[in-house]
Amino acid sequence: MKGHVQDRWYRHKKDANNKLMYTSTGRPVREKTELYGKGLRYKVHYYDEENNERSKSFPDKAKGKADDFLLKMQHDVLSGEYIDPNAGDVTFRKYTAQWLKGQSSDASTRHSVNSKLKTGIFPFLGDKSLSVVEKTDTIRNWLEWMEKPKSEGGRGLQASYRALLFGIVSAILQSACDDRKIRRNPCKVKSIKKPKGEQKKVVPWSNSRVRSVQLALPREYSVIVPLGAGLALRQMEIFGLSPDDINREEMIVRVQRQIRWVDNRPVFAPPKGGKTREVPLGEGVLGEVDKHLEQFDPVSVTLPWLEPNGRPVTVNLLIRKAKPRTRYFGERVPDVIDGANFTYDVWKDAFDAAGLDYTPYRDGMHAMRHFCASVWLANGVSIKEVAEYLGHHDPGYTLKIYTHLVPSSHARARSAVNTVFVPKQRSAAG
After folding, report:
1. Residue 357 DSSP class
2. Are 306 and 258 contacting, i.e. CB atoms less than 8 angstroms apart?
3. How do residues 67-77 score in pLDDT, each as one tens digit?
4. Which long-range contacts (CB under 8 A, 24 or more apart) does 211-214 make?
5. If you average pLDDT over every residue of the chain, what do you get?
């Protein structure tokens, strides 16, 4: 196959008639070129899959490496595994910009990915070339940097967040492999271990804790508790709920939207995962909603759909924002509640008012979903149904979270088998 290694420092000497000169032993006579001692000595000339000539240079005393490189390029071209050695020179940051073009068109998802890139990926990997990021040592050093405390020059990120970042980097590098920028995805090498977030057991609130929080909330927000603890709605699904989503004849609530904030702008969007769902509505929860409606009128809000420049959608929201708070992050938007601000300004204050300790992981508004799921399971609702009501795509995921809350069915199992193998009556003495 075409290709050769050129020695730039020496050439075959020719006589006055332009013929090659040989020694007495028949070896060509060599002479120094005008490039002797300047730059890299060996230049490998080879041809890619499209028969374009390419080259790569090696220093003095590296003839063996040059020969090996030529053989590898020739082999890769013949086997269809050829990758341009310069393809990996592009920076990780620049390639990621191309990768993002093929990802989700959802503005909130793009915003979330960009935030993660800026937080824990670009500061370490952004300005490195793909060929450098491809090395397993680079990925190991990045993983160490993410875990190391800030006081030691790292980021001090939790394992669960590190796992999310690892997944993004792996997806980007896999795309680089598919685009033949690099030969392998180092995140899939056996010696590289993906961070694993600690799976904490869900500890549901007690009934009294639910009631205490509801009583401590301002009246205009107290309906939040039955919506969360009685319907398992997520925080921004609660704030995006409309009385029009309630079917009083069938006693169900259709969960079909939430409020998202994209670049400090609120938008309406489908629930998490784009999955609408129907949740059974208890009479007691409906009574709480009606009680709220007797005191507070719904508010008509028009927001763009999915992203700030999306089509406008008008919805009558059940819960309106109360008077503007003094502690507010980002842009003020009348009648629309920001989840983070609500947690900081209202939710945590309710725990203080109720005399309850507040732990972010245990006591965020998401805890009401856990409470509702535990109530369903304790009363015989199947895991499959609970998964549907929660909006989970996979019942296995629901079981993983709540398996320890599923009540024991040993007694029911024994009773079922006893209908076939009927136990003998024990004597009174027995």
Report:
1. -
2. no
3. 999 998 888 88
4. 212/354, 212/356, 213/350, 213/351, 213/354, 213/356
5. 89
